[in-house]
Amino acid sequence: MGFREALINRRSIYAIGKDRVLGKEKVEGIVKDGILHIPSPFNVQSNRAVVLFGEKSDEFWDKLIEIMKGMLSPDRFPATEEKLLGFKAGYGTVLFFIDDAAINELKDKFPLYAHNFTPWSEHSQGMLQYYIWAGLEAEGLGANLQHYNELVEEFVKEKYPIKEGWRLTAQMPFGKALEKAGEKEFLPIEETFVSLGE
Questions:
Q1: pLDDT tens for residues 96-151?
Q2: Which residues, listed in sequence order, are joined to residue 167 by a DSSP beta bridge?
Q3: 3-state DSSP assignment of residue 129
Q4: What is the distance of C-alpha 157 from the center of its chain?
Q5: Under a CB-based contact definition with an 8 Å cutoff, are residues 74 and 58 in contact?
Q6: pLDDT per position as a tens digit, 14-63
Q7: Domain chopping of the chain, boundaries
Q8: Which CATH number fits domain 3-178: 3.40.50.261, 3.40.50.1820, 3.40.109.10, 3.30.420.280?
Q9: What are the angstrom distances between the C-alpha of 195 and each of 7, 25, 155?
Q10: Residue 37 — φ and ψ, nearest 5°?
Q11: What predicted TM-score, i.e. pTM, was given to this entire model?
């Protein structure tokens, strides 16, 4: 699959399964390539990722289910549990982080641009998430992007080898796509694109 096809085909796939459409090493390779080659402000290289496979991924979603059960009323919890069990049903999960310690060093080194480094690092993080998402799609996997950051960050930092200063930004459950995404609607391109000059 070419770059443009991966761009167009990348969608939020919520029905995912544990079948190994792609080997662990190939998934790790996609994530590592993104970490190494996605641009970052002043080449600070502040993007971080942890990939959870199999029971490690299950453990993460089980903990989040436990947390949500303690937060939601009995009438609201079942719908949330069903959604989270859908993410647990996948083959693995990518946890995304920004290394705020690296960003703070950059702020100290270049105070003139200090107010820009956090948003710039988030731009880089978005590129990383998109690259990995499209990369998994190109290899036949389905994925989606979630943001349960504050709810589960304490558990993540206690359970996994996370360095001080890493801030959890997103979670990407992935696995065999069990259904296709629905039709996507687009605004008229005339409202969202301008081209000037020859």
A1: 999 999 999 999 999 999 999 999 999 999 999 999 999 999 999 999 999 999 99
A2: 98
A3: helix
A4: 17
A5: no
A6: 999 999 889 999 999 999 999 999 999 999 999 999 999 999 999 999 99
A7: 3-178
A8: 3.40.109.10
A9: 21, 42, 48
A10: -115, -10
A11: 0.95
